[in-house]
Amino acid sequence: MAKKIAGKKNAPADKGESVDVDAAVAGDAQPEAAAAGGKLSSKAYERELKKLHAELVTLQQWVVHKGLKVCILFEGRDGAGKGGTIKAITERVSPRVFRVIALPAPTEREKSQMYAQRYLPHLPAAGEVVIFDRSWYNRAGVERVMGFCSDEQAQGFLQMVPLFERLMIDSGVILLKYWLEVSPEEQTRRLQSRIGDGRKTWKLTPMDLKSYDRWDDYTKARDDMFAATDTSWAPWHVARSEDKKRVRLNVISDILKHVPHKKIPAEKVVLPKRRIGRYKAADYPFRYVPETF
Hints:
The protein is α/β, with parallel strands linked by helices. The protein is built from 12 helices and 5 strands. The chain has helices spanning about 1-5, 20-25, 30-35, 40-65, 80-90, 110, 140-145, 150-170, 185-195, 205-210, 215-230, 245-260, and strands spanning about 70-75, 100, 130-135, 175-180, 235-240. It has a 5-stranded parallel β-sheet, sandwiched between helices. Helix 4 (about 40-65) runs parallel beside helix 12 (about 245-260) and helix 8 packs across helix 11 (about 215-230). It is globular, with a radius of gyration of 22 Å.
């Protein structure tokens, strides 16, 4: 089963069977780049990322041209690298096409609604790519482990969500689900790095600290989630995230592979002539920003 998840992403899950993603990550189905070992240099990373960004722009234009509806979910433990991966995907594309959804904790009103209701307004319309930084799968992970929902609610969710995702796909949505897998050692290193770095302290939440010692609980929740929701129509894609640079390149490459697209022919762009000097600018006392640097 572990090799199925790592190597055959479109195969349906055997319901009720626990999925050993840890074994898949440590197994023999490693990509060539990872097997080669060694740290990816910043220069090599930027070179490959530049190529992928250009291809993402091509994909963006095709999504708008064809009116495609693309929904991408990112799940994983705290510190797995979801935010950095999403940032790498979106930093060179239009925020009007690529929308990132990271919902806060539900309000009292939202708690009284049908569970999936708060996510429905954010699903993509034609010409949009919507990326969820955590999604409805919160119920299968954080909410279940931290006791924010009952076992009955969690089990009900796992039974319902494959049908919900089937409806999405039947309506024309291209759904991609990514789980970023990180080791306990690397997670600890990343969480510790947030403590003393003023640029990262906002990333360390009280929930991170409360969930830190529940590794096994999250592993069990992850395995149950895969067993119930890794379907042939909406399979999970597992990405090793020990190396942040590699996982970003790998995930972007995988998205490009799974969303059909091609380059749209475009006319050569030539800047038109412009006239300067016909108007004399006002002598206004502008408040310039101090040039400290």
